[in-house]
Structures are given as structure tokens and as C-alpha cells.
Amino acid sequence: MTAGRGIAHAEETPNTNSGRLSGVQLWVALPDAYRHTDPSFFSTEQVPLLEIKGGIIQLFAGSLQGVTSLAPHFSDIIGMELQVHPHQTIQIPLNPQFEHAVLLLDGDLKIKNQPVEHKLLYYLGTCREDFAIASRTGGRILLIGGTPFPEKILMWWNFVARSPEEIRQAREDWEAQRRFGDVHRTQLSRLSAPDLSRFAQANPIS
Is 49-146 a domain of CATH 2.60.120.10? Predict the structure, then answer.
């Protein structure tokens, strides 16, 4: 989903579905040249799958080894799920100009003989030309990356902007039901934005 100048959406499970859902929601800041673009939505039933020695890669963003995901993007990024088979080590090439991070999804995994813990995002930094990960019983890990973002970003509630004034305007537009549109055929009620009391300053290294 590309929010662009503003979009509204609902997250709900169809009545015909049941059981536990495990997922990761990723937000990618749009470069200044594209952040006011028209909102849009794209879906696919199957992302590119690469079978490599010791595991399987599902590529949902960017390009790897001559394969490209169909998902649209507005900056240079990479996103994939790595599945490592039991008692195997996989190694994949990385773009050294990207910064990368990994998140354990399930199973057991090690990076340079150090166990990867659950619920922690591991920042790998830049200048890496490859990445190796091993598993004893098998596991899955999320790997994301992209060029270091050149602009300061401010995020508050569901709004991403460059300044407190833009956040304030977005909140006013949301409450007045301007710009963002409405979600039809949903059983959920429209959320109200929290009171706007104060801002944290934009992270100087974002």
C-alpha cells in the first residue's frame, strides 16, 4: 500500500477465517519527490521464490540474483524472508551501499556463532557485501535494507511527515475527514486521532 498524500484503510479478519495470524508490517518512508503521489494498493498471491544451497528465499521487495519483486517501490530497497534448513548455513550477497537489518521470525538462527533473539531488530549497518546465517533445527528470518535515508523523518500516530506543522495539518485533515478518504464495506468504526500535545524532534540520523 502506498499512502502518498493520504489514505485510509481497515485491518480486519474475514468472518470465514479463524486461527492465529503472524505477520510483520513494514513502513517505508517515501522520498520527498514522491510523498504527495496518488495513494494506491498492490497485491500478489506469490512473491518470487529462490531455492539456494541450505535454504529458500522469498523476495517481496527489490532485486536479488537477477530476480525482481513485482511490488512497486520509490527508493532502492530490498526485502526478503530467508528460510534456513536444519543444520545448514546460507550466504547471500548484499549491496554494500545499503544499510540492512534482520528480525527472527521463528526457529533458531545464529549470526557469526551468536544466537539471534526473538523480538529484536538487529541493525547490520552498511558496507556489507554478503550475509551468512546458520541454524541447528531450522528457522526463518526477515532481512530488509535500502540506501540510508537522506531526509529527517517525523512520525506520529499514523502520520509520517517532515515537520510538526505537517503532522498537525494531517491530524486536522483526518479528524475533518479530508484528504484521506473513507473505507467502505467495513464493520470497523473510524478511529479518532489522539490529542496532539507535543512532538519529539526528528531523529538526526534517520
Answer: yes
Rounded Cα gap, residues 98 and 146, in angstroms: 5
CB 179 within 8 A of CB 173: yes
Question: What is the per-residue pLDDT across 107-166, written as a single tens digit (0 to 9) for each?
Answer: 999 999 999 999 999 999 999 999 999 999 999 999 999 999 888 899 999 999 999 999
- CA 156 to chain centroid, in Å, comes to 17
The ranges assigned to domains in the chain are 49-146, 152-190+202-206
Nearest to 82 by CA among 104, 98, 112, 114: 104
139 vs 110: CA distance, rounded Å: 10
Q: Which residues contact 112 (CB under 8 A, 6 or more apart)?
A: 132
CA distance 84 to 173: 46
Strands 139-146 and 99-107: antiparallel
d(CA 122, CA 112): 13
pTM score of the predicted model: 0.88
Cα distances from 120 to residues 22, 104, 137, 167, 178, in angstroms, run 16, 8, 20, 28, 37
Query: Which stretches does DSSP call E strand in 24-156?
Result: 49-52, 55-61, 63-64, 67-68, 77-84, 88-93, 99-107, 110-111, 114-115, 121-125, 130-135, 139-146, 154-156
